[in-house]
Amino acid sequence: MMVPVRCFTCGNVVGEHWEEFKARTREAEEPEDPEMVLDELGVERHCCRRMLVSHKDLVDIVAPYQ
């Protein structure tokens, strides 16, 4: 649903990077490589990267049914 605030595996804060990651990889005119964006954001651990790369934002789809 919503991007988790912390990584499930190590507990590092990853939620603060979601908006910029989404904007730079999906919504830009020329999307950047996700690997490069995560490097620039300082997300180095594989478990934390997975939290951002594999997240699917479903809040807008599910919200009307709550």
TrEMBL record:
Provide the catalytic activity annotation.
Answer: RNA(n) + a ribonucleoside 5'-triphosphate = RNA(n+1) + diphosphate
Q: What quaternary arrangement does the UniProt entry report? A: Part of the RNA polymerase complex.
Instruction: Kindly provide the name given to this protein in its UniProt entry.
Output: DNA-directed RNA polymerase subunit Rpo10
Q: What broad class of enzyme is this?
A: transferase
Family, as annotated: Belongs to the archaeal Rpo10/eukaryotic RPB10 RNA polymerase subunit family.
Q: What is its EC number?
A: 2.7.7.6
Tell me which Pfam families the record gives. RNA_pol_N
Q: Which GO terms describe its biological process?
A: DNA-templated transcription
Reading the lineage from the top rank, the first entry is Archaea
Q: Write the lineage as a comma-separated list.
A: Archaea, Methanobacteriati, Methanobacteriota, Stenosarchaea group, Halobacteria
Can you quote the record's cofactor note? Binds 1 zinc ion.
Name the InterPro entries for this protein. RNA_pol_su_RPB10, RNA_pol_suN_Zn-BS, RPABC5/Rpb10
Residues bound to Zn(2+) are 7, 10, 47-48
Q: Which GO terms describe its cellular component?
A: cytoplasm; DNA-directed RNA polymerase complex
